[in-house]
Design brief:
The structure is a single chain. Helices cover 57% and strands 5% of the residues. It is mainly α. It has 2 domains: 48 residues, no CATH class; 40 residues, no CATH class. It has a two-stranded antiparallel sheet with strand order 1-2. The longest helix is centred in the middle third of the chain and has 17 residues.
């Protein structure tokens, strides 16, 4: 007679509150799910929760990470001329003023100056 495998009480409680779901799907659907899982980096559980509207799409997190990375790479910071606090170029007016200042200060490409 086989002995039952001992499960700690925490595992028994977890199994009771998180039942296993098992389904059969066509090979085509299985391949699509596997492809989606690979491309998105999401688990099948996350894909299921998102499709049921029980979880915010992981795309929001990915978008935020991409936005933060682009901001670190491309934002143009400068200091306030009054208090010295940090500012970032964000408005069209700021961009126009910077362009005017750069032209009046004779800014140019290094390659253009070498000609």
């Amino acid at each position: 007679m086989k002995k039952k495998k001992h499960l700690p009480p925490s595992k028994i409680k977890y199994n009771q509150t998180h039942p296993t779901v098992s389904i059969r799907v066509s090979q085509d659907l299985y391949d699509q799910l596997k492809d989606l899982r690979g491309k998105s980096g999401k688990s099948l559980g996350d894909i299921l929760r998102e499709s049921l509207g029980k979880q915010a799409p992981s795309a929001n997190k990915a978008f935020q990470q991409g936005f933060d990375e682009a901001r670190r790479q491309f934002v143009v910071p400068y200091k306030c001329s009054i208090c010295g606090g940090p500012l970032e170029v964000t408005t069209d007016e700021e961009k126009k003023q910077i362009a005017v200042h750069m032209r009046s200060a004779d800014w140019a490409h290094t390659s253009c100056r070498d000609k």
